[in-house]
Automatic annotation (TrEMBL):
<feature type="active site">
    <location>
        <position position="253"/>
    </location>
</feature>
<dbReference type="InterPro" id="IPR016163">
    <property type="entry name" value="Ald_DH_C"/>
</dbReference>
<dbReference type="InterPro" id="IPR029510">
    <property type="entry name" value="Ald_DH_CS_GLU"/>
</dbReference>
<comment type="similarity">
    <text>Belongs to the aldehyde dehydrogenase family.</text>
</comment>
<keyword id="KW-0560">Oxidoreductase</keyword>
<dbReference type="InterPro" id="IPR016162">
    <property type="entry name" value="Ald_DH_N"/>
</dbReference>
<protein>
    <submittedName>
        <fullName>Aldehyde dehydrogenase</fullName>
    </submittedName>
</protein>
<dbReference type="GO" id="GO:0016620">
    <property type="term" value="F:oxidoreductase activity, acting on the aldehyde or oxo group of donors, NAD or NADP as acceptor"/>
</dbReference>
<dbReference type="Pfam" id="PF00171">
    <property type="entry name" value="Aldedh"/>
</dbReference>
<feature type="domain" description="Aldehyde dehydrogenase">
    <location>
        <begin position="23"/>
        <end position="477"/>
    </location>
</feature>
<dbReference type="InterPro" id="IPR016161">
    <property type="entry name" value="Ald_DH/histidinol_DH"/>
</dbReference>
<dbReference type="InterPro" id="IPR015590">
    <property type="entry name" value="Aldehyde_DH_dom"/>
</dbReference>
């Protein structure tokens, strides 16, 4: 039994502070179904306090007025502390959301550290001010911090998504109110402690665990200049609607239904080794997961057999066990959702090639077997809707044009991959697919390039100079004719 983690205060403006509300969030282990932690549920009054502190820190405080190197020094200390405490962070997240510990170390903790590190590199190389020759005379173009940022992060990769927002926002000179999910608030206290010890000035960062109603109040707050949100399409639409009342700028990183396309000349062993961890990553709870696998009809049976065998061999169990490859889903509602889609898929005529139920020997916990459907048509709900669980579809196609058409026939456009013996041909195929990130014979997410989606997968970008720029406003200063000329 993991020791109960209890926090009685909220992190507001850099200090642990008694909450103004009385609600409490109970964090439930998805493995044991037992309570593993309790934290205060932030109230609207707490949001008011945090936004007011952020507003003061931005309007009057030293952080936006510090040099970039001074900000890099503080953010670098945050990055270094995450590296030192990465095992503690990984254990905390795995205990809360069921992410396999081995994956948590790499993606949840060290991955977050890499986001902080990459953001420092981007900020250091970014052009914050430049002189141009205008039509009527010289102009100065400046990029200045956007202001107070509301950063709303999900439960599936809480530190990674927090870093994607916090690192560029802080480096740009913004102040931030971070809103963790009620499923995973415990690791945010580690982050708050790290930020305080790193020397962030008063008011620059607040962390408020809360549910949907308080989140909506935060993104609609008149004191907020920018909302950066990661979550579902439904929630993203609501964020945009609420933020639009104040014309608040928004960045939305939403869902996906990404296609991994296996071309006829692909090496099957390479494709299986690359796609299986990309499909079932984080128990299928990843927006970039390759949840549709497209196989040529000429090799369909061979590919189906290989993927079913690989999925069946995945080790399912306690997320804190280093051998586990697939853990439990974050909540009973998510387990029920996956099982509902498995039933829907069967009703639609798809065939279960492996999985489909509760893993043997795991009577407790929110577990679903790694499941692969064969004979899927792209019009089926299981091929069109984001399941966010370990349920993957294998779809046949005829020629390459049909493969590209199926990949694009989606409301989403977040990720994707192509597998082929000809990398140059794979690059040509990648250019055809309307999606924000793409992979040729690999699967990764590079923090120095822009990440985001086409269509319903989002608005704006994270990572790279494009993501950093989302936290900056552009200002043009007209100069008198002849100024600065020699």
């Amino acid at each position: 039994m993991t020791e109960l983690v209890e926090h009685g205060e909220l992190f507001i403006g850099g200090e642990l502070t008694a909450p103004l509300g009385t609600e409490v969030i109970e964090v439930i282990s998805p493995h044991s179904e037992q309570v593993l932690g309790r934290v205060p549920h932030a109230s609207r009054a707490d949001v008011d306090r945090a936004v007011a502190a952020a507003r003061r820190a931005f309007d009057e405080g030293p952080w936006p007025r510090a040099t970039l190197e001074e900000r890099i020094e503080v953010v670098g200390r945050i990055k270094d502390a995450i590296a030192v405490r990465h095992e503690e962070i990984a254990r905390s997240i795995s205990a809360q959301n069921g992410s396999p510990y081995s994956w948590s170390v790499l993606a949840q903790a060290l991955g977050a550290m890499m986001v902080w590190d990459s953001a420092i590199s981007v900020a250091r190389d970014f052009t914050h001010e430049e002189r141009r020759d205008g039509v009527l005379g010289p102009i100065l173009v400046r990029r200045e911090p956007v202001g107070v940022v509301a950063a709303v992060v999900p439960w599936n990769v809480p530190q990674f998504t927090a870093a994607a927002k916090l690192a560029p926002a802080l480096l740009a000179g913004c102040t931030v109110v971070l809103k963790p999910s009620p499923e995973t608030p415990l690791d945010s206290y580690i982050l708050g402690e790290i930020a305080r010890e790193a020397g962030l000035p008063e008011g620059v960062l607040s962390i408020l665990p809360a549910g949907r109603e308080v989140s909506e109040y935060l993104v609609g707050h008149k004191g907020v200049d920018k909302v950066s949100f990661t979550g579902s399409v439904e929630a993203g639409r609501r964020v945009m609607e609420v933020a639009s009342r104040n014309l608040t700028r928004v960045t939305l990183e939403l869902g996906g239904k990404s296609a991994a396309v296996i071309l006829p000349d692909a090496d099957l062993a390479t494709a299986v080794a690359g796609i299986v961890p990309a499909a079932w990553m984080n128990n299928g709870q990843a927006c970039v997961a390759q949840t549709r696998i497209l196989a040529p009809r000429s090799r369909y049976d061979e590919i189906a057999e290989a993927f079913a065998a690989a999925a069946s061999a995945l080790v399912v169990g306690d997320p804190l066990d280093a051998a586990t490859q697939v853990g439990p889903l974050v909540a009973e509602r998510q387990r029920r959702r996956s099982l509902d889609y498995i039933r829907i898929g069967q009703e639609e005529g798809a065939k279960i090639l492996c999985g489909g139920g509760r893993p043997a020997g795991l009577e407790r916990g929110w577990y679903v077997e790694p499941t692969l459907f064969g004979g899927v048509d792209n019009s089926m709900r299981i091929a069109r809707e984001e399941i966010f669980g370990p349920v993957i579809c294998l779809l046949p196609y005829g020629d390459e044009d049909e493969a590209a058409a199926i990949a694009d026939d989606s409301d989403y456009g977040l990720s994707g991959s192509v597998w082929t013996s000809d990398v140059e041909h794979g690059i040509d195929f990648a250019r055809r697919v309307r999606t924000g990130t793409y992979n040729v014979n690999t699967f990764s997410l590079d923090m120095l390039g822009p990440f985001g989606g086409y269509k319903n997968s989002g608005v704006g970008r994270e990572f790279g100079p494009e993501g950093y720029g989302e936290f900056l406003e552009h200002k043009m200063i007209h100069l008198p004719a002849g100024h600065g000329s020699h």
